[in-house]
Structures are given as C-alpha cells and as structure tokens.
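Task 17 of the worksheet. Students: predict the tertiary structure of the chain below and write it out as structure tokens. Keep your answer in the requested format; marks are given for formatting as well as content.
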Amino acid sequence: MDMEDEKWQTQYEQLNQRARWYSTQLWIVPFTYLGLIGIAFEKISALENTYFRSTGFLLIAFFSLAIFVHVSSVKYYERKAVKGMKDLETRPLSSGGSPWYMDYAFFIKALLCFLSFFFTVAGIWTLADDSRIKVALLILFLVLLFIVYLLIIIKDYCRNKSLLEQIKDSPE
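Model answer:
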C-alpha cells in the first residue's frame, strides 16, 4: 500500500467515524432532552410560587431553542461528512437516493419548536394575573420565538441547499 492509499484510507475512516458520531448524536440528544424535560416539567409544575414556575417554563423554552440549534448543526455536519466520503470515493458504492425520504432531524426540530412554544405559553400564562398582560406578553414572546426559529430555519435551509448542490455537482 503506497502513501496515497494510506492517506485516502485514513481520511475515509475519519469521515466515517464523524458521520457515525453525528448520526448517534441525532438519536441521543433528543431522547436525553425529552427525559430531562419530563423531569423538569414535573418539578416546575409542582412549584407554588408562580414567578418561579413561569421562569422555569421560560428557561425550558430557551433550552429547547438551544437543542434545536444543536440538532440543526449536527445534521449539517453529518451531511458534510457523508459528502466528504462521497468525494473520496473513486467510484460510488451505491447509487444513493431514495424515492421516499423522511428526515428524522426535521421531525425532531419540529418537536423542539412545538415544545419551546408550549413552554413559552406555560411560562407566560402562569406569570401574570391580568389577562391583558398575559395576552400581550404571550404575543410578544411568541412573535420573538417565531422570528428566531424562522431565522434559524432559513440559515439551515441555505446551508443545506448549498451542500446539496455541491453533492449534486460532484462527479460520481
């Protein structure tokens, strides 16, 4: 085995390990998140002080946003590692593609969006006594959360679109 083959094999193995690690993260992170959120929700719901309960729910909402960002970046880097492996292959090992494709990361991100909205609503609903303040705060926080998610999704879409175009343009 010459030096070039060893270098190729080392790069391929490293990319393969990265792709596997990212794939593992896409399963471990959401289930860990759901377990932690279940425990936190039970503890926060039992709090007597409405201020602490509201703060707890809002913290869970922002924690959900952080997990959303993490899952998005893990999915991006998983695709990037697979693209790197495809680029190293002299002849493709498979034709790739599927007529029906379900993206697991998309469903996890959708769940995270829903849960962060839910915890934002729960946090604000337990915070204020006056219904007008509740509605105003609720609208404000939901609009802000929606804008943040929209910006993240647009950035993720642009990043993935550029990566997918690179994959399509790569010689097979």
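Marker's comment: The helical segments are 3-45, 50-88, 104-127, 131-169. The radius of gyration is 21 Å.
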